[in-house]
Amino acid sequence: MINVAVTGAAGRMGRTLIQVLTEGDGMRLGAALERPGHDRVGADAGELAGLGHLGVPVSDDLTAVVDEFDTLIDFSVPESTLAALHVCCAASRRMVIGTTGFDTDGLAAIEAAASEIPIVMAPNMSVGVNVAFKLIEMAAAILGDDVDVEVIEAHHRDKVDAPSGTAVRIGEILAETLGRDLETDAVYDRHGINGPRDRRTIGFQSIRGGDLVGEHTVMFAGTGERIEITHRASSRSNFAFGAVRAVRWLQEKPPGLYDIQQVLGLG
Ligand SMILES: NC(=O)c1ccc[n+]([C@@H]2O[C@H](COP(=O)([O-])OP(=O)(O)OC[C@H]3O[C@@H](n4cnc5c(N)ncnc54)[C@H](OP(=O)(O)O)[C@@H]3O)[C@@H](O)[C@H]2O)c1
Questions:
Q1: Can you tell me the distance from the alpha carbon of 141 to that of 159, in angstroms, rounded to the nearest whole number?
Q2: Quick check: is 159 catalytic?
Q3: Helix, strand, coil percent values for the chain (each to nearest 5)
Q4: How far from chain centre, in Å, is Cα 159?
Q5: How many whole angstroms separate alpha carbon 127 and alpha carbon 133?
Q6: How many helices (H) and strands (E) does the chain have?
Q7: pLDDT in tens, 23-37
Q8: Which residues touch 91 (CB under 8 Å, ≥6 apart)?
Q9: Of 29, 166, 214, 261, which sits with the fewest C-beta atoms within 10 Å of its C-beta?
Q10: Nearest C-alpha neighbor of 151 from the set 121, 192, 122, 180
Q11: Is 67 strand, coil or helix?
């Protein structure tokens, strides 16, 4: 049985992770964490996730519960992740990091910690998205400069940034595979008289509306035909399933910084 702790337990991903962990085999929720002062500290983690009583109270002190888990799943905020790194290194605990938005110093701290403990970190833990990344790379390598490439993403109306981090990652994969530079070749906006399309460009379109969880399409448009590779998320559980898969994979690994592509055997 693998004992797992979840930070950001009251958040959207935290509650989804508690549900997925509790329903799966071979894992047990050992601890649930929230920031000090959060109104759900002390609440039962199962009740927080809508599951009924689990007997795991939400804690605001990772050090105090460090004996209750082997691996920490962290989908919270960078500040919380970086504080958890110290505790996990001191106690030799593994980490699966889904939190996004680290600055250069934060990324350097994670890399340094990975020389002491095994860490999986991925800005998108979805198994399906990562399979789509591989398919996009394959298609781009074969189609090359014979097609125009467009990335279209759609998310809920509350998402504040655009394009999505996943769309940017898709852009990086396309640029690397096609020998282009995202800095100069990405086009994020078209309006008015733009002239004919330059084949080297990688176009991005962002749609925002309603409660869309997240959709990404890459269109490879050639003459007389086009290929579209699409991933659609219908709930946040896809990210949680990927994180749980990473926890299982990490158990036999030495210290190091791994990504989800390695977990899935795609890297
Ligand atoms: N890698 C992936 O596949 C993936 C997928 C989805 C989301 N994410 C990322 O995961 C993170 C969380 O996303 P979300 O949608 O779940 O956000 P969210 O609903 O805002 O949840 C974040 C939770 O972390 C809590 N928190 C803040 N400071 C904390 C601390 N010091 N210790 C413990 N908990 C703390 C927040 O509490 P308060 O609200 O009270 O501050 C909140 O409950 C984001 O960085 C997001 O980009 C990654």
A1: 32
A2: yes
A3: 40, 25, 35
A4: 15
A5: 10
A6: 9, 12
A7: 888 999 999 999 999
A8: 66
A9: 261
A10: 180
A11: helix
